[in-house]
């Protein structure tokens, strides 16, 4: 479960009447339980690819599948984390995490137990009753990750999740994310422009070039993990 498969993806836009390809001929895959990064300069199409897997954007050509099924829209099998933490400021930390579960109609006790388990993994259990405003940037982003994981997705999609954080916090976040990923064994597609970050985190790194965005290299990272 959690196999992402993009084949020969092209995304075209019309700009000033001219057709432009944002990405062209992109083929990539994330095997179940794998941590895969996509790196490349700004504008090379990283977010475009992530939005296709998330189901927010349809490719102009090519095939996009998760577990063999064509992606037709967003789904609970795929959690998404963006650079900007989009927490509800009027809800406490645990209420933020439980929100999606509540929408699914899950009972209070089960919601609470699931949220507390995940908050514990992220080292945030003692902050469950805080409001987002009372947390640091790194902590807010950890809540964002926990919230994306709450519904039990097989795939976690992350678009520059640590882009707004200072260097020291980033390193801490990378370690926390690695720990969570190892415990939860889900597939991760991680977008970053930071090659060092991608190497530290990933089993495999795709390097893209811009205009139009293409995969330039696919690099397995055979080193033992921290
Ligand atoms: P990054 O993903 O590196 O933060 P942005 O999302 O800001 O980069 O987008 C990179 C470039 O793509 C920018 O020049 C921006 O103007 C352009 N862009 C992004 N989204 C759109 C859009 N919906 N329409 C037109 N141009 C866009
Ligand atoms: P990255 O995430 O690598 O910064 P993006 O996926 O945001 O790149 O953008 C890839 C390219 O597609 C950019 O050149 C951007 O200008 C273009 N682009 C993205 N969205 C749109 C859009 N809606 N209309 C026109 N161009 C877009």
TrEMBL record:
Tell me the GO molecular function terms. ATP binding; ATP hydrolysis activity
The alphabetical list of record keywords is: ATP-binding, Cell membrane, Membrane, Nucleotide-binding, Transport
Q: Where is the ABC transporter domain?
A: 6-226
- In terms of superkingdom, the source organism counts as Bacteria
State the family named in the UniProt similarity comment for this chain.
Belongs to the ABC transporter superfamily.
- The name under which this protein is listed is ABC transporter ATP-binding protein
Give the organism the record lists: Parazoarcus communis SWub3 = DSM 12120
